[in-house]
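Format notes (please read before filing issues)

Several people have asked whether sequences and structure tokens are stored in separate files. They are not. Every record keeps both together, in the order shown below: the sequence lines, then the token lines. Line labels are part of the format and must not be stripped during preprocessing.
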Amino acid sequence: MVLQYLKKTGGASPAVLMKAEDFVRQGYQRLLTFEVSGGGFSLYGRAPANVMLTAYGLFEFAEMANVIPIDQRILERTRQWLLSKRQSDGTFHETEMPYSLRAGDHDYSLTAFVTWAMVSAGSDEAQVAPSLRYLLDALEGQDDPYALALVLNTLAKLPSRLSDARRLARRLVGIRGPNGWAPKQRTLVFSSGDAGSVETTSLVVLGLAALKEDPASIRAGVAEILRHKEASGIWYTTTATVFALKALVADQDWQPSAEAFTGKVRVSVDGRLAGEIAVSDKTYEVVHQLDLKEFTRPLSVRQSFDRNALAVDDRLKARVELDYSGPPSGSLVLLDLGIPPGFAVQTQELDDLVRQGTVSRYELAGSQLILYRPPVVPGQPVAFEYHLKARFPVRAVTPPSKAYEYYNPANRVELSPVELEVR
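Then the structure lines:
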């Protein structure tokens, strides 16, 4: 999505475009590792596959195909797996599973999301007819803006259903609140509160922009989305950020604006004002920094090594300690740990950690070791160790390392680099 926008607007140098394409290729290869044997995708690539995640993956593959070559068989294989999970009445249902996206009480929203993913990936109306019939038959009884917005985007993709889409668009415009649109229950990725409102408002804006309906409501929705943008450039969660960016790009594609503006960005942490930054149409792309050291997070992560100097072929012991002091969040923790240059991670101990359940999955991605850790229970610290082998003489500093909650990436910890020497 972002790469397409950069190419269309000419807003990036060839070097930046090349780097962005490389990121997309890496993402494509990593996404393939989450495919389950037998079809579909899950959070860790292990059975059973998850309907919601598989539809999400289909969305991503379809967008990637617009900017890089991909294996077209993955699109068809994923589409066919989803069709195999469709119920006789056209609905899709999700069985609850630990540490995965659950949508057991969201059949209508789930069906709308899967149908939208399929038509976005090239399915024609005949292929989605049973689900479309179910969605339209039950439409009048639905009052959740989130579910209605998903249906709106589905209908907007089908030329023969544009009249239905416009009627639904007018209905959604009529129920817009003072802060945009908010879901009546948690979204398919468990979002509620501000994150849920950003997801829902973004989906409505995306649908309205596709139909070129009600510019005033689109502008109001865009303003609400921008009001929630964090200083780091994201919106609460991965899904909220993706939908927000989609909505903003769709709005600019339809009605680009070069209006002059001035304003202030207020940065708050847990309700406490951390600072204000003045912005304008001439300075909005300037990077600003605020010192937030005084603000602490409930997630605490420490990494240490048993020594800083060693010889070639020596093994370096790394120890990771996690603690959580806030209310239970139920969120996975991602540990993105830098691998020092000249060192190789010994994976046998990591395999043991997976078997023990200490971590759910790990990946070696270039100079980073990525660990997926189940939720940390408040008051029950977790510690584990692994080893790295020194391969050749080097004096190096560990690459950037961080840890954050998967469903609340704002709760993150940056780990200080460590200097190591191999003689």
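For reference, the curators noted about this record: Residues 299-422 form a domain with the Immunoglobulin-like fold (CATH 2.60.40.690). The two ends are 47 Å apart (CA to CA).
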